[in-house]
Write a structure and sequence with these properties.
By secondary structure, this protein is mainly α. Helix content is 52%, strand content 5%. A two-stranded antiparallel sheet has the order 1-2.
């Protein structure tokens, strides 16, 4: 399972805001330059994040975007839910592209159950991580994942 590019870059936009000085606004141009993306792409992401209530836009010469929620309070799952589509929707019979008019498994679909189960596991995992957790260097994040996985396995035993 992979996060979509849109979900990844939405998280990266929020990380830029989280790293900014308290109360400082970050512009679309600043984020676009740092991520080597177009202003239009970042503007679309910021619109989604604003509609989800995760960022606030400030107009004017010294305007830009700020977080509406502290990085410690903002779960990664909330960000992914705001930007992307839950994996459980990956098997959507309404978007069937086969030869028939609708999916032949519409009434009893093993894939839909499988994707819903995977989605639940991924969502639970991402719920345990906040934007603040992603501000650490990669090595430390990997160590934290390992420690959490070890505690989880120990709790199950």
């Amino acid at each position: 399972m992979r996060l979509s590019a849109r979900e990844e870059y939405g998280l990266r936009c929020l990380l830029h805001l989280a790293r900014a000085a308290p109360g400082a606004c970050v512009t679309i141009a600043e984020i676009a330059k740092a991520e080597a993306l177009t202003d239009a792409n970042i503007a679309k992401l910021m619109r989604l994040l604003r509609q989800a209530g995760l960022v606030n836009s400030v107009r004017g010469r010294s305007g830009g975007y700020t977080l509406t929620i502290t990085p410690e309070s903002l779960s990664v799952s909330r960000v992914v839910d705001a930007i992307g589509e839950r994996l459980g929707h990956a098997c959507d019979c309404g978007r069937f592209s086969g030869m028939g008019e609708r999916c032949v498994h519409g009434d009893d679909c093993a894939m839909r159950g499988l994707f819903a189960g995977i989605d639940g596991v991924v969502h639970d995992f991402l719920s345990g991580w906040t934007l603040a957790d992603l501000l650490y260097p990669e090595g430390e994040i990997r160590e934290r994942i390992g420690r959490r996985a070890s505690r989880s396995r120990a709790a199950e035993a």
